[in-house]
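Q: Got a minute? One more chain.
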Amino acid sequence: MKIKLAELFPSCAIVVTADQAMWTTPLCDEEEKLIETTVQKRQQEFRAGRHAAHQALDQLSAPWQPLLRDEKRQPLWPTGFVGSISHCRGECVAVCAKAAELASLGIDVEPLEPLPKGVDQYIHTADDHATMQADNTLPERLIFSAKESLYKCFYPLIGEHMGFQSVSLNIDAENMSFDFIPSATSTIPFPAELKFHGRFMTSKSHLYTGCYLTGN
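A: Always. Here it is, folded:
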């Protein structure tokens, strides 16, 4: 059964999965200039992500503009819109929404396989490790992917790097959702006036996580 990625987000958000043509179809000149010196693999990933994002924005009736990037290589979305892009091994997804409806959002896609050996010690807090040990049905990359989408969601609002040890996750396996708790030493100014929502789902080959922020 085909999964419905739109269910990661409320109906006001548009999720687009890049089709095969999007990986190789050139973008506008301004966007192509951003990847002119990169390797072919990176060019294809960038094109797929931008094409998918443009399609999502078009469905939201956003004014067309090149999707450039800031000094930290984050996409610059049209005024009044928020979005997120993720890709891995031939899979690329983008999600966009109107800023008046969602304060921010983040999406991540990962292969449905374990992390490289030893990497989890840099990703998982002690609480995360306990969570994964307590339920062997959870996808092995879930903590990594959920934190990736969480960081993408918060970065546009706080503008600073968040290490993987900055938060621990609460996983609700039954409802395929997650929340987070800042670590005791974290100084990240998470906006208290916004409510966090996180969800995950899997296909036969990939793990998808998505999160978004709404007003309390």
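A: The helical segments are 29-33, 40-59, 120-123, 126-134, 142-158.
Q: Perfect, thanks.
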